[in-house]
Amino acid sequence: MSGPGPTPAREPALEVDLRSAVPPFEQIRAGVTALVQTGHLAPGAPLPSVRALAQDLGIAPGTVARAYRQLEAAGVVRTLRGRGTRVADSPPAPAADEVRAALAQAVRAAVAAGWDTDRIHSAVRDELDARRPD
């Protein structure tokens, strides 16, 4: 993709576990929300097209479209005809369930990477310490 402006963010990647009891559209919604709230997706950043994300995740485009509609209804993203879906300029503050979803996603990624409990706890402590005022 060429031209001015940011390119769609690809890292960290969204993942969908088709074996999970959580529906894929909800996993996408929670994952995008977590990426926005943690700053991995900045305001105005474009999201992949519905078709591109569906192909990347190996799911139906309608599933991604449903997640994007819910994200738009929640004020996390905005969709402009012909310009795609972008992170909202002022995304809403995270709700408790969204924070838990973001934490759960981070823990799943750490476990999948082979991290043990002590290493995960240490990483969380480091993140908290980095955000404490001096």
UniProtKB/TrEMBL annotation:
GO molecular function, one term: DNA-binding transcription factor activity
PROSITE patterns with a match to the protein in the record: HTH_GNTR
Segments forming a coiled coil: none
Highest taxon above the source species: Bacteria
Pfam families to which the protein is assigned, alphabetical: GntR (PF00392)
InterPro entries per record: Tscrpt_reg_HTH_GntR, WH-like_DNA-bd_sf, WH_DNA-bd_sf
Domain (HTH gntR-type): residue spans on this chain: 22-90
Keywords from the UniProt entry: DNA-binding, Transcription, Transcription regulation
PANTHER family: HTH-TYPE TRANSCRIPTIONAL REPRESSOR YTRA
Name this polypeptide is given: GntR family transcriptional regulator
Source organism of the structure: Micrococcus flavus
